[in-house]
Amino acid sequence: MRLIVRDDAISAAHYVAKYILKRLKEFEPSQSRQFVLGLPTGSTPIEVYKILTNSYQNGEVSFENVITFNMDEYVGIPRDHPESYHSFMWRHFFSHINIRPENVHILNGNASNLEDECLQYEAAIQAAGGIDLFLTGVGEDGHIAFNEPGSSLVSRTRVKTLAYDTIRANSRFFSNDINQVPRMALTVGVQTVLDAREVVTIALGARKAVALQRCIEGGVSHMWTLSSLQLHRHSMIVADEDATLELQVKTVKYFKSIEQVALEEGFEQAISKRLRKALGEKHACHALAKSAAPEPALDNMGSRIRNNNITFVG
Ligand SMILES: N[C@@H]1[C@@H](O)[C@H](O)[C@@H](COP(=O)(O)O)O[C@@H]1O
């Protein structure tokens, strides 16, 4: 797992947006080879969506050959309710870019058979070739998507009852009236997220600090489902300083020093190359096929420089 720390929320959002743009550029999506992007809702990714929208409007990126899968949706509120995740995504992102409506996937919280809806969603992800990059947020209780504390770490898309803490936290979107917040949601599972080729999480503000501490410095636990990212080969958390408030100073310094060394030694290029390889396994990526250079070995202990070769943890 990588941890990237930026001074404030805007800088963190810029880092994430630029990272996604870089991945899209490297991938060169086309009609026969579409990029599959997993997306979250919540206040945290809004700035990322704004930056991606601006990039589209400036002609820097196209979403024509991007397929999206959203993480979750409330059960039982109308699709056009202003706080449904469907409305959220179109309001903050999809309406402003050139994505094809048929490429947008958002769970239907009003389906007559919710279990079937979840099964079909998993099947649709498979049919798209799996998710290339899953962007996620994190709840105050450490949940990823709506995988509340106690969720199975091998769970897949399903119906979930929301934790009281989440209902309380999300009441700010429902006129601060806890009674208006739906009690249930459909959500991708922890394993659905872990199956993505890459996971990028953005965590902003002091209210995420405890969750971040548990997920980075604690062990893998179903009580803090974001901690499952410790098991992923290509996971990265991008946080602002406030979100790191509960981490040990030495933890933050450690990850900052890794980033510094990595920048100096071309780590970014090494990661890009390794990810292109992972994507190439699915898409027969022509760019990587050209490269005959050996991959750097993995080292579970962290970033190391050996004979000018960098090894790194995923
Ligand atoms: N299901 C969503 C999560 O996907 C999101 O990460 C979380 C944090 O939201 P915010 O970014 O508003 O703090 O809220 C909800 O619970």
Automatic annotation (TrEMBL):
A biological process from GO: N-acetylglucosamine catabolic process
UniProt-listed InterPro entries: Glc/Gal-6P_isomerase, Glucosamine6P_isomerase, Glucosamine6P_isomerase_CS, NagB/RpiA_transferase-like
Boundaries of every Glucosamine/galactosamine-6-phosphate isomerase domain copy: 9-219
One Gene Ontology cellular component annotation held by this UniProt entry: cytosol
Protein name: Glucosamine-6-phosphate isomerase
Function recorded in the entry: Catalyzes the reversible conversion of alpha-D-glucosamine 6-phosphate (GlcN-6P) into beta-D-fructose 6-phosphate (Fru-6P) and ammonium ion, a regulatory reaction step in de novo uridine diphosphate-N-acetyl-alpha-D-glucosamine (UDP-GlcNAc) biosynthesis via hexosamine pathway.
Reaction equations catalysed: alpha-D-glucosamine 6-phosphate + H2O = beta-D-fructose 6-phosphate + NH4(+)
Family (UniProt): Belongs to the glucosamine/galactosamine-6-phosphate isomerase family.
Native source organism of the sequence: Talaromyces rugulosus (Penicillium rugulosum)
PROSITE patterns on file: GLC_GALNAC_ISOMERASE
EC numbers on record: 3.5.99.6
